[in-house]
Structure formats: structure tokens, C-alpha cells
Amino acid sequence: MPKVAIITDSNSGITQKEAQELGIRVIPMPFMIDGEEYLEDITLTQEQFYEKLTGEANVCTSQPSIGFVNSVWDEALTEYDEVVYIPMSSGLSNSCQSAKVSAEAMYEGKVFVVDDQRISVTQRQHALDAIELAKKGYSGKEIKDILEREKFNSDIYITLDTLYYLKKGGRITPAAAALGGLLKLKPILTIKGEKLDKYRMRNRDMENAKKIMIQACEASINGFLKDLDGKTDNVYLEVAYSGVDKTPALEFVEEIKKVFPGKNVDVYPLSLSVSCHIGTGALAMAISKAIPELEK
């Protein structure tokens, strides 16, 4: 039975401290701020990031060099037989593809790069799933295949407090942003598969947005996720938020529990890579189907 190391990146929201507690490695995502590189949770805290983002600094996302990623793999392989690497969605960054090319060229049979097209709390869940699969004795290739098989069995919905960052990133036109600001819109986006996409752009307030997100997740749980095995009780529920104020997220949790009584709802900060494109004050709801191999 191979000894398998689990590695992810900080887009999962797993901190360096949590990684140590879980016995895994987390590659920090780099950010360029006014031309200087910072590493998430290493030389850049959540508080520092949002201070820069909401100020006048020029903040943009980057990706870890493949040389750095390889060095983390090399270190892990001194202790383990195989590595499973779970990077952010290939649809949102080139880092996954770069890792796949490197693994196939230099680490064949040793490093398995998971292209599960997830980010933030659903990526986090897959990292946790991978840990449990490794404990059960699954090989690196088996874990990769299971996670990729399950990649679309999740949903994330995000409502925004501002359109400024979508305009800044070129995702909407200045005219659309101006109109949205005038109408005080709180649009809802979704992340599933290859990109951050529109879900409900003409929503008018945060309270209604939360109801829409709950309804959308409830429909998925009772729809395509139920169709997988006939069950609705084996789904993880999560809330995520951008900014440093956790209070709105905790209030959202209580609203979700009214619809899903008795269910646990975990709360985590949104990935900084996502937050960089949507700004502060965002709220998200995510669902992930439990992996069948871990229910046995």
C-alpha cells in the first residue's frame, strides 16, 4: 500500500496552520501588489490583503512558479511514495495545466495532479476527502480518478456587494457597472467547471440574494445530486465570505439552518484569488456531495 501525500494550494482556504494539523502541504498563492510579490498566509494576511485591495494599491493574482511547486513535491517524496496535488480549477488559472505537464514529464507514476475544476470551499472539501481516501489505503491514481469523477457534484453561488471589481477586471463594462450601481444591484455569480459565471444579475438586495442562493442549492440537492444515489442527507453545506467581518456569514448560516434543520454548516473565508475579482462584502453558499467511497 503506497504512502500518499496530499498537497493543495491556498485557493482551498486551508491555512498553513491547518495544513500542519491535517498533515498536508499547502502551496501559497502569490499576489502582485504594486509590483511586489506577496505569498498568501506567508507574507500576506487576510487583513493586509483587504487593506491593500480596498485602498489605492494595484492588486492582481499570479500563480506559483512550477519550479517552486516541484520543490514542494520533491520534499514530499522524501517521506511519501506518491503525491496527489489538488490545485485550483484549470478553468480559472494555468497553474493546473503547468502542474500536469510537469508531473507527466518528470514524475510519472509518482505525482498525480487532480483537475477537478474546483476552488475555495469545494476545493477544500476535496482536499479533506483526499486525506481520508489516503488513510483508507487508496493509491495516488485511485484518489485522482475518484476526485475527477466527482468534480461536478458540487455548486457554489456568490452574491456581490459591489460591481467595482468586476468592472476593474473587465468582466463587465463600465456602463453596466454604473447602471448596476445606480440600481443598487447585488448580482449572483456561480462557479462550476471552467469559470466564474453569471447566475442572477438583476437581484436588488442581499436578503433576496441569500434566499435565491438557498433555493438554488436546495434545488440541486433534491435534483441532480439526489439522482446520483437517491439520497439528500449526504451533502456538505458551506458558507464563505470576503472581507474581515465574519458576522454576515454567521447570520447567513442561521438562515440556512432554518431550511436544512439539523445540518452542519461550515464557514470559511473565500479564496483571496476569488476575492480579488469580486471585492469585499461578498457572501457565498456551497454544496458538495459526499464521496461514496467514504460512506462505506
Question: What is this entry, summarized?
Answer:
Keywords: Lipid-binding. With 296 residues, this protein is an alpha/beta fold.
Q: Which CATH class of the largest domain?
A: Alpha Beta
- Order of SSEs, N→C? EHEEEHEHEHEHHEHHEEHHEHEHE
Q: Which quaternary structure do these chains form?
A: single chain
- Largest sheet: number of strands, sense, barrel closure: 6 strands, mixed
Q: Tell me the number of structural domains.
A: 2
Name the shape in a single word.
Answer: globular
> Largest sheet, order of strands side by side?
10-9-8-13-11-12
How many strand segments?
13
Structural class: alpha/beta
What is the share of helical residues? 40-55%
CATH architecture group name of the largest domain: 2-Layer Sandwich
Mean pLDDT: 88
* Residue fraction in strands: 15-25%
